[in-house]
Design brief:
8 helices
Length: 130
């Protein structure tokens, strides 16, 4: 189910990305928290409003997701995304630009730092941020 939801996010068509993020973001078990954390590797499907919702889901998990964020390896996540791109996972095409699909290691590192700081500072999202 989580992989199907991730597929919807990466494909970025219609309302499916939002639904995919909702499915992943609502889980609170270890697998869901790990999966939610690792979505940071995707650039495509995580822009504009979808990116804000992703941030809100991470912040809403608070201390429960901190260990997953702290253990996150930005270089490994970038490599994983590039490998998924090269393997044409989720119907990705060779004509797509890998840097449009996958976040850079630097951007993953920055997002990680921002979310950890936000959780530690007690930041919460307003209803309109979702």
């Amino acid at each position: 189910m989580l992989e199907f939801a991730e597929h919807a996010i990466v494909q970025g068509k219609g309302a499916e990305p939002e639904l995919g993020l909702d499915v992943i973001g609502e889980g609170n078990g270890p697998q869901s928290l790990q999966f939610l954390t690792e979505l940071v590797r995707w650039q495509r499907g995580m822009d504009a409003g979808q990116g804000e919702s992703y941030t809100c889901y991470l912040l809403s998990k608070g201390n429960a997701i901190l260990p997953y964020l702290e253990q996150m390896d930005p270089a490994a996540l970038r490599q994983k995304c590039v490998a998924e791109f090269n393997g044409r996972k989720y119907g990705l095409k060779s004509s797509d630009n890998v840097d449009y699909i996958c976040r850079s290691e630097k951007n993953i590192r920055l997002k990680k730092a921002d979310i950890i700081a936000g959780i530690r500072d007690g930041i919460v999202c307003n209803n309109e941020d979702w």
